[in-house]
Amino acid sequence: MARLVVVQQRHPFTHHPSLSSPFSLLPSSLSDFNGIRLSNPIQNRRKVWHSKGALQVTASSAKKILIMGGTRFIGVFLSRLLVKEGHQVTLFTRGKAPITQQLPGESDQEYSEFSSKVLHLKGDRKDFEFVKSALSAQGFDVVYDINGREAVEVEPIIDALPKLEQYIYCSSAGVYLKSDLLPHFEIDAVDPKSRHKGKLETESMLESKGVNWTSIRPVYIYGPLNYNPVEEWFFHRLKAGRPIPIPNSGVQITQLGHVKDLARAFIQVLCNEKASKQVYNISGSKYVTFDGLAKACAKAAGFPEPEIIHYNPKEYDFGKKKAFPFRDQHFFASIDKAKSELGWTPEFDLVSGLADSYNLDFGRGTYRKEADFTTDDMILNKNLVLQN
Predict the structure, then answer these.
(1) Quick one: which of 289, 292, 221 has its CA closest to 260?
(2) Helices (H) and strands (E) in the chain, counts
(3) In DSSP terms, which residues pair with 115 in a beta bridge?
(4) pTM for the full model?
(5) Which residues lie below 8 Å from residue 320, measured CB to CB, with a gap of 6+?
(6) Is the pLDDT of residue 45 over 90?
(7) C-alpha closest to that of 306 among 314, 296, 315
(8) Is 246 helix (H, G, I), strand (E, B) or coil?
(9) Does residue 306 contact residue 245 with C-beta atoms inside 8 Å?
(10) Quick one: the chain helix, strand, coil %, rounded to 5?
(11) What ranges in the chain are assigned the alpha helix state H?
């Protein structure tokens, strides 16, 4: 049964004045960094999450904001920015993961100040009746939907909040139809058969509902806490001193955007009239080849330039295992619209962003998946046989 839980670190048994009725209050876990305990004290603490430039939020007053998700990756950084800007932030999750977690390099005071202000609405977003009743009872000005995949999961939220000021949706650049003409622009054709078709249908539903919506389409996202094996895949191999197997020529061009830059883009569209009913591609400023990415990861993490082995994926049967973390094609998008209309620009170049990810995550011994070199060994063993 879904239920409402409000989390306030400092006063776990007091009723928050903004709630219309009392609910059970539970403290959240403080000890885990994405499920991996940091057993050693962090030396030479320094502030991790800071802005190199002033954030410009056009909201004239604090907003009551609901984040669907928010405990894994994007929302961890977005919620901190929103709280810093003075907004009241509620996270809607199933409560299976700690609602807040202290980031490496984040001071105790910074974390305490943040976690004391975050509220928690516990439930399953697929329990549509609960979503409608809970959200209508609370009322929210703005919704950030970080983990929505299907339109049917979004419609109950819209129905529950008739006075909603803005619905900000995390879509994906994966919705674009594969093309020989690149980069992808927001006006380009989309693929109704893509694995992200649910996100396309959600954008269409939001438009049909007449709500004020904004959709963000990231390309590949990287940074601390990344649960997709993007940079982590390379770091595992670099740390083990292994060659990097890359499909085909290695000159396939792709694009990565840092999660903190993405969080800033989400802030820039908040209450921004220019962002009303608009779609924005968000990623890094430059594109990079697969070979170039391997070298950038090594440079960022302080490893020697790696040996790169190219292979033809058609010559192997990897079964259900994924031998490489990127789609084997050119895939990148223009971010000019976001830069011109929102005044947003990425603060991280690729190497500095990868260094930030490594130093605050993998380099501290924390990662999401254990190293698995099964497919690498298949490639390397065949390559050795051919050489002999």
Answers:
(1) 221
(2) 11, 15
(3) none
(4) 0.85
(5) none
(6) no
(7) 296
(8) strand
(9) no
(10) 35, 15, 50
(11) 74-84, 108-115, 128-138, 151-160, 197-209, 231-239, 259-268, 290-301, 336-342, 350-360, 374-387
Residue 8: both structure tokens together: 């306030």
- Rounded alpha-carbon distances, angstroms, from residue 202 to 55, 131, 213, 310: 29, 17, 11, 39
d(CA 148, CA 139): 19
Alpha carbons 259 and 221: distance in angstroms, whole number = 6
* Separation between Cα atoms, residue 221 and residue 230, nearest integer Å: 8
Please give the DSSP secondary-structure letter assigned to residue 290.
H
Instruction: Tell me 158's DSSP state.
Output: H
Cβ-based neighbour number of residue 307 at 10 Å: 11
Spatial CB neighbours of 324, under 8 Å, sequence gap ≥ 6: 233, 245, 246, 247, 290, 313
Residue type, 179: S
Give the pLDDT of residue 387.
61
Residue 241: count other Cβ atoms within 10 Å of its Cβ: 10
167 and 158 in contact (C-beta within 8 Å)? yes
231 φ/ψ angles, rounded to the nearest 5 degrees: -70, -30
pLDDT in tens, 207-258: 999 999 999 999 999 999 999 989 999 999 999 999 999 999 999 999 999 9
Name every residue whose Cβ is closer than 8 Å to that of residue 49 and which is 6 or more positions away in sequence.
77, 80, 103, 106, 260
Amino acid at 141: D
Both structure tokens of 104: 């490496």
- Looking at the DSSP bridge assignments, the partners of residue 142 are 65, 166
Taking Cα atoms as reference points, which of 363, 356, 379 lies closest to residue 47?
Answer: 356
Closest Cα partner for 195 from 327, 375, 334?
Answer: 327
- Please, which pLDDT band fits residue 102 given cuts at 50, 70 and 90? very high
CA end-to-end distance (rounded Å), the chain: 63
* Cβ neighbour number for residue 219 with a 10 Å cutoff: 24
Q: Write the single-letter amino acid at 339.
A: K
